[in-house]
Amino acid sequence: MKVGRITCSDRASAGVYQDAGGPEIERVFSSIWSGPVEFTAKIIPDDVEGIKAALIELSDKVGCPLIITTGGTGFAKRDVTVEATLAVLEKELPGFGEIMRAQSFAVAPTSILSRATAGIRGRSLIINLPGNPKAIAQCLPPLLPAIREALRHLEES
Q1: What is the C-alpha separation between 62 and 122, in angstroms, rounded?
Q2: Using CA atoms, how far apart are residues 109 and 102, in angstroms rounded to an integer?
Q3: Of 42, 96, 123, 132, which sits most exposed with the smallest number of CB within 10 A?
């Protein structure tokens, strides 16, 4: 399966620090997905237009059934991943964000400040994950049943 993964970070895209979120998505998803996975990776700045373009490319041109972002789900001025994602979605699936926040709350009560969401564009499921690698490892596995179901519906549509 083709999975697009986008790290949204000014500093990682500029080489100020090494991207840890993107590789963590690959590690965690590969460990919970039963079949082979081919990742298409992007590291881009926190910029609405750039994030929108990357999501559209991975969905419409590359044809990734699943696109996972990391970073930009907070409420700082440069946290714009959610705005970019909502701008390209055809249907929002807010339950993904609700589960991620609920899953993280016991460990980090501040997780309720996350604006992570998910939704559908064409035949792609797009999921915004937090930028913290520990949060990725905590949030992604519980989403697997819903990911499988959503991908099954998108494949049939």
Answers
A1: 12
A2: 9
A3: 123
Name the nearest CA neighbour of 8 among 104, 111, 119, 130.
Answer: 130
Q: Quote the Cα angle for 33-30-1, to 5°.
A: 65
CATH number of the domain that residue 145 is part of:
3.40.980.10
Look-up of token digits 């690959």: 26
Domain count of the fold of the chain? 1
Three-state SS string across the chain, please?
A: CEEEEEEECHHHHCCCCCCCHHHHHHHHHHHHCCCCCEEEEEEECCCHHHHHHHHHHHHHHCCCCEEEEECCCCCCCCCCHHHHHHHHCCEECCHHHHHHHHHHHCCCHHHHHCCCCEEEECCEEEEEECCCHHHHHHHHHHHHHHHHHHHHHHHHC
The residue type found at 141 is P
Q: Report yes or no: 76 and 11 within 8 Å, Cβ to Cβ.
A: no
- Domain residues for 38? 2-156
